[in-house]
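Dear Dr. H.,

I hope your travels went smoothly. While you were away I took the liberty of generating a structure for the chain from your last submission, since the lab meeting agenda had it listed for discussion. I wanted you to have the full record in hand beforehand rather than looking at slides cold. The sequence, exactly as received, is reproduced here:
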Amino acid sequence: MCDMCSSPEAVYRIELEGSLLNVCERCASYGRVISKIRVEETPKKKSKKADISKETQAKTEKESETLQIIVPNYAQLIKDKREKIGLKQKELAKKIAEKESVVHKLESGRMKPDIALARKLEKFLKIRLVEEVELSDVNLNSEKKQGLTDTLTIGDLIKL
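The corresponding predicted structure, in token form, is as follows:
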């Protein structure tokens, strides 16, 4: 690829203001040509999808049947653990690289953490905030047969 114009074929190596660049034929006139580059065709690789085994596909399907949710009493868990280890909200916020207002909203229940923030809190406070809920094919199939819905709703998750 040409370092100057991003053309896909860079065939010359030039020196331009003390820098060595790989450039195309059009851009070669801007500097002193040092050498011509041999262009070699690289063999195409097989697509990775063709290499995936059936075990991996089954594992992927199984993983897609689980859903990560935040436990309902996350606010109380965070507050209790923070107080137990003797930290103020400001100190906890600094330790997990978040704003103090975020920690305050989490503890008061006005803000629900996303999975990344919950994982960060889990790691620091050594508590469990994220639950993995396995979606049951039996429940989903029975609802489809009844014609209620083709998509998963929040109510479906609560029933699980």
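Two observations you may find useful: Residues 68-130 form a domain with the 434 Repressor (Amino-terminal Domain) fold (CATH 1.10.260.40). The radius of gyration is 28 Å.

With kind regards,
E. W.
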